[in-house]
Amino acid sequence: MSPSSEPPQFLTGRGLGSHIVPDGLRAAGWLVVTIDERHGPQVSQGVSDVDWIHDASIRGECLLTKDAAIASRPAEAMAIYMNDARAFAMARANVTGPTMLAWFLANERSIHRMATARPPVVMAVGPDHLRRRRHAYP
Questions:
Q1: Comparing C-alpha atoms, which of 86, 105, 117, 99 is closest to residue 29?
Q2: What is the structure's pLDDT at 2?
Q3: Is the pTM of this model over 0.90?
Q4: Higher per-residue pLDDT: 26 or 134
């Protein structure tokens, strides 16, 4: 996705759920598609992380995910790098849907700014901050 005046678009991973986070972000004006909406609930369960990273990236979408480990697992890290992905992941995995939504919204300005940053980038989303995650590839 190149920098522009267009609002960023996001694809949410399975770990963020299909309702609380995406519906809350849409209510705040974010352009969000869930992986279930894109592929259907049954098919989406079989879509690999590598495939959804590629899919979102070629569409110019940023990734929203619960799993910050995508920056460190070899296949996913390579997919992020090779597809010039921009990913925003929860800084902690043990948070609820309402908490994840609150963290994304608390960091909305920074996320939207980083959505046009030079890729690849993986940012950990905390309660009141973003932190760049070390990327395990190359």
A1: 105
A2: 44
A3: yes
A4: 26
